[in-house]
Amino acid sequence: MNYLLAGVGGIFGSLTRFILGRKISQKKGGSFPSGTFVINVTGAFLLGVVSGLELPESGYILIGDGFLGGYTTFSTFMYEGFDLISGKEKLNASIYIFGSLFLGIIFYMAGFFAAKQF
Question: Is the pTM of this model over 0.85?
Answer without folding.
Answer: yes
